[in-house]
Amino acid sequence: MSVEDFIEALEENHRFPGPYTLKVIGTNSEDLRVAVFAIVRDELRLQYEPRHEIKQTPSGRHQSLTLHLTARDAHQIASLYARLQTLEEVTMLM
Prior knowledge:
This protein has 94 residues and is an alpha+beta fold. 40% of the residues lie in helices and 32% in strands. The protein starts with a helix and ends with a strand.
């Protein structure tokens, strides 16, 4: 899916500005958590970590970070996804 298609789908399915839930799945490491929160804080111009939950798989090899955000627009979410996809530790974004 192209960036333009992704933005169009976001605009069709979400109301902006408004709440947006993002799930990041990746390796179970402090490095992943630190990197994800740094990107989110930078992209959303936050001074704090957003409301979130962290769950580990039973094996302890992976974790999911569910982030509850307030997004300005679909372009901001697309930029956030693009930056998060560059993290080596990320397996999936939802």
